[in-house]
Amino acid sequence: MNVTIESVDGVSVALPAGRLDFGAAGPFQQQLEQAIAAKPKALVVDCNGLEYVSSAGLRVFLVAARAAKAAGIGFAVSDLKPTVKEVFDLTGFANVITICVERASALASVTKPA
């Protein structure tokens, strides 16, 4: 799995591509932790390139969401492909993590004024 992290108006946007399985989960978690440690306004994970997510991968999203909340920054996920969205829905993660249809709405949701 490849991950690119870019900045959009002070918000870190992670772009994972490929399969988020057990082998990729650890490195992906480290990248998200580093992004959060940099104290951006928020962190958005744009999953447009994500083809598959395992239970280990789901755990990374949960850990990142909790770490972002503890750091006082917004966190959202966007652009889930239907097969990946189904995993989020079936496991209840859609009720725990902010999931947006597209990156623009995710950016808007994490940068709205308090």
Molecular structure report:
- This protein has 114 residues and is of the alpha/beta class.
- The chain has a single domain (2-108), classed as 2-Layer Sandwich (Transcription Regulator spoIIAA), CATH 3.30.750.24.
- The chain is built from 4 helices and 6 strands, in the order E-E-H-E-E-H-E-H-E-H.
- It has helices spanning 22-37, 55-71, 82-91, 103-111; strands at residues 2-8, 11-20, 42-46, 49-53, 74-78, 99-100.
- Strands 1, 2, 3, 4, 5 and 6 form a 6-stranded mixed β-sheet that branches.
- Strand 1 (2-8) and strand 2 (11-20) form a beta hairpin.
- Helix 1 packs parallel to helix 2 (55-71).
- It is globular and about 30 Å long.
In short:
This protein is α/β, with parallel strands linked by helices and 114 residues long. The protein has four helices and six strands; from the N terminus they run E-E-H-E-E-H-E-H-E-H.
Number of domains: 1
For the largest beta-sheet, the strand count, sense and barrel status come to:
6 strands, mixed
CATH topology tier name: Transcription Regulator spoIIAA
The structural class is alpha/beta
Q: What is the terminal separation in angstroms?
A: 35 Å
Strand content: 25-35%
The CATH architecture category equals 2-Layer Sandwich
Helical fraction equals: 40-55%
The radius of gyration over CA amounts to 13 Å
Shape: globular
- What is the CATH top level name? Alpha Beta
Q: Figure out the total of helices.
A: 4
CATH H-tier superfamily: STAS domain
Mean pLDDT, to the nearest integer, reads 94
Number of strands: 6
Q: What is the assembly state of the chains in this entry?
A: single chain
